[in-house]
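Hey team,

Filing this mostly as a record. A colleague (T.K.) asked me to run one chain through the structure pipeline before their review meeting, and I want the input and output archived in the tracker in case anyone asks later how it was produced. No errors, nothing strange. Just documentation.

Input sequence:
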Amino acid sequence: MGGSSLCPEVCRNTFGVAAGCPDLRVVDTTDPDAILAMERSVDLARTLFINASKSGTTVESASLGAYFWEKAQRGGQWIAITDADSELDRQGTERGWRAVFRNPADIGGRYSALSYFGLVPAALIGADIGLLLERAVQALEANRPGVSSLQPPASGLDGIHLGVEIGGLALAGRNKLTFVLSPEIADFGNWVEQLVAESTGKEGRGVLPVVGEPLGRPEVYSGDRVFVALLLEGRTSREIEARLKALEAAGHPVFRLFLKDQYDLGAEFVRWEIVTAICGAVLKINPFDELNVTESKDNTARLLGQFQAEGRLPEEAGAGPEAISSLLAKARPGDYIAILAFLERKPDYIVGLELLRARLRDQTRLATTLGFGPRYLHSTGQLHKGGPNNGLFIFLTAENAQDAAIPGRPYSFGVLRRAQALGDLESLRRRGRRVVHIHLGRDVAAGLDQL
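Output structure:
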């Protein structure tokens, strides 16, 4: 989950799979429909399982590990990536797994892209991790104090300067950091979204990363935006460049960062970790903790305990799609709209939700984000609860078509997923967030059409 899964997903979707190397599937969900679909799509006897978790106790990765271990109990098919002396380290050693990669314990999960968590899966799919690290080291050298202050790198602002700029603009009210990415590196947005949101969203402050929102005309934006364009050299469309220039002309800050090729993502991992740390210093918060992530985890654990004692979870029927109107009536200048979807991440659902995002943005001039549960709990979920109270939350749930038992647990994936949704909903309400829960029922496609 989170930092353990997002960099591998970026590498798979950016570099592809080299000839003769195994494909990579990232399973970072508790949705039983998605888990069962993934299981059916592979030959389990010819699959290598990578269980990646700093602590080894994260409920999602521990549950998924238990589920797939029951299906494939050959140690040679398993690898662990974890901290030394963790529960997962002990498990991998005792079960004779093929390898246990012990990561330095002082690396936080979302800052772990260029550690074993990102590099082991990247190496397995045949990515050139030597070149990736070479670009990262070059960026690190360019950001050394005394170097960065004299000569920003050719690809644009270094991390120190950019972090000061973004932090200062956030203090001035431009706290919606909107990313514009070349299609070839579009998946990088999911990684940087987690890094910025989980690091800066606390103590009533924060920078909202806006990823995947289509680039619009100046009139659909309010004065709370900053735009950062990460562009592959020579591949920027005329339309994108024209829209960026129009935004600049309208008074919006626009930063352009140019990459020679996809392997410059190594430099971007470094740059944005530095940007985020410096931005946190400007905002006077600690960019290395995530107190409100733990809050939702605790709510989930309590609800699962209630299920074990009573055999059921609390009832939460949810409203119909028409409830969105009452939520939008509460909008204030400087707000944003977050769609929190405890739905399977199916392509057709994503298309529908992105259409909803675009319409909401164009009609309200508010920034919009889209997160799928439970993965957003390890990303923007921190900012939703720890950041400023300027979010309008559209919380979507649906019924699963199937369920799957979790070996050794008194609850199924369906129950776990529902407990996670209810736990986060409870946390948002307790903090006085403006939220509407819309239940789409069993026919999700029809529910989305209606919404």
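Quick notes for T.K.: The radius of gyration is 22 Å. The chain is about 45% helix and 15% strand.
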